[in-house]
Amino acid sequence: MNIPPVTKNLLIINALFCLASLVLPPVMGRFFGNPFELSRFLGLHFFLAKDFNILQPITYMFLHSTHSFSHILCNMFSLFMFGPVLERYFGGKRFLIFYIVCGLGAAVIQELMWFIDFYPLIFHKIVPIDSFGNVYENSFLYNTAITIGASGCVFGILLGFGMLFPDDVIFLMIPPMPIKAKYFVILYGILELFLGVANFRGDNIAHFAHLGGMLFAYLLIRYWKKRRNNDYYDTGRGFGRW
Q1: 203 — phi, psi (to 5°)?
Q2: Is residue 15 situated within a structural domain?
C-alpha cells in the first residue's frame, strides 16, 4: 500500500514520540537523577494548572501511553487505514489542517469538561481533603488532569470518512461483520457519548475529547463544502488540491 506523505509522516512522528517517551525517562533518571516525563511537559493539562503551556493543545496529540501499547496501536492503525483515503480526497495540506483542527477541537472540549469538573474548586464551593483530613491545594489537583493521544484526530478522521464516503463498507474485526461507514460512525459516536456520560469507575479514557474531534471534523467539512465553489475547484468526488 502506497501511503501518502502526510499520513506517513504523522505515523512516523507519533512513533518517534512514543519511542522518546520510553527512552528519555530512564536515561534522564540515570544521568541526572530526575526522570523526564514527556507527558508532564507535552501532555494536555487543565488550563489553570501550573504545568499548562500554550503548546500542549498541539503536542499532546503526538504522545501516547507507555503503559499500554494498545493506545498507540489502535490510533495508528486507524490513521493508517483511513488517513490515506482522506488525504487523497482533501490533498496533503488540507488533510494536515483537518488532522490538527480535530486534535485542537478535542483539546477544547476536554478543557471544557475539566472546567465543569473543577468548577466547585475554582469558585471555592468545596474544600478538597483526603481520607486523613489533609487539605489538597487546588493547584495540585489541577495538575493531576492530563490527556494524551491522537484519538481526537482519529475520531475526526472516522467522522470525515463517514460523511464523505457514507455508503462505503467497513469490515469490523470485533464483531466480524460488514457495516456501512455512516452507520459505523453514528453508532461509535453514540457509544462514546454514553461512556462519557456514564463515567464508569476506572475509565480513564477522554470520551468527550473523542466527541470533540468528531464535532470539529463535522464543522470543518461543512465549512469547506460551503466555500468549495469560491475557494478551490471541484474534482468531482474530492475537494481538490492546494
Answers
A1: -85, 105
A2: yes
CB neighbour list of residue 61: distance below 8 Å, 6 or more residues apart: 100, 103, 106, 107, 149, 150, 152, 153
Q: What is the tens place of the pLDDT at every residue in 56-81?
A: 999 999 999 888 889 999 999 999 99
Q: What is the pTM of this model?
A: 0.87
The domain that holds 18 is classified in CATH as 1.20.1540.10
Strand partners, 121: none
CA–CA separation, 42 and 177 (whole Å) = 38
Residue (of 55, 63, 71) closest to 104 by Cα position: 55
Angle between helices 151-164 and 70-90 (to 10 degrees): 40
Give the model confidence (pLDDT) of 72-110 as tens digits: 999 999 999 999 999 999 999 999 999 999 999 999 999
Contact (Cβ atoms closer than 8 angstroms) between residue 50 and residue 139: yes
